């Protein structure tokens, strides 16, 4: 049995693509670069937001219309370990670090094609609330969201394959 992945900077710097249960490709664009010829910092935030919402839409059928609850971002972070740039293809990996009663902590790893070094590790905490009142849900995260996220708990404290210490 393995231990959960550490959340400190040294542990994040050692991330590999295999630490993420779900991966999407992103083709960089000329407009993603800054004047130093690497991805502009806000692009990383867009990648983080995009893969989380893409997963929720594809596997949980999530949409802001027709749902009585919504996931709001409570906090965000991004730690940078190298530069990604245009032209190129990125591998963007997603995992769930922790699922609480009404919140989910996501982690996203960003890798440049052809490089094993993680370029950035970021994520956000999403808080599930009633869409009309913005109050946390009495019954917690909807089952329609929670169940499809179970495979993303890979290498977390809540991963059934990880031994409790």
From TrEMBL:
It comes from the Eukaryota. InterPro entries: 4-hydroxybenzoyl-CoA_TE, HotDog_dom_sf, Thioestr_dom. The keyword Amino-acid biosynthesis does not apply. Pfam families: 4HBT. The keyword Ubl conjugation does not apply. One of its GO terms (molecular function) is fatty acyl-CoA hydrolase activity. Residues 37-118 form the Thioesterase domain. Keywords: Hydrolase. Belongs to the 4-hydroxybenzoyl-CoA thioesterase family. This is Thioesterase domain-containing protein.
């Amino acid at each position: 049995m393995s231990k959960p992945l550490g959340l400190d900077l040294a542990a994040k710097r050692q991330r590999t693509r295999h630490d993420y249960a779900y991966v999407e490709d992103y083709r960089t664009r000329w407009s993603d670069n800054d004047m130093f010829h690497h991805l502009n910092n806000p692009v990383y935030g867009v990648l983080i937001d995009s893969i989380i919402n893409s997963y929720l839409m594809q596997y949980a059928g999530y949409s802001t219309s027709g749902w009585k609850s919504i996931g709001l971002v409570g906090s965000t972070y991004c730690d940078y370990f190298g530069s990604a740039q245009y032209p190129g293809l990125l591998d963007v990996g997603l995992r769930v670090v922790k699922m609480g009663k009404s919140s989910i902590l996501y982690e996203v790893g960003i890798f440049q094609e052809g490089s094993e070094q993680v370029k950035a590790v970021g994520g956000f905490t999403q808080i599930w609330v009633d869409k009309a009142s913005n109050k946390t849900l009495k019954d917690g995260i909807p089952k329609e969201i929670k169940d499809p996220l179970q495979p993303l708990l890979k290498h977390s404290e809540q991963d059934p394959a990880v031994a409790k210490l």
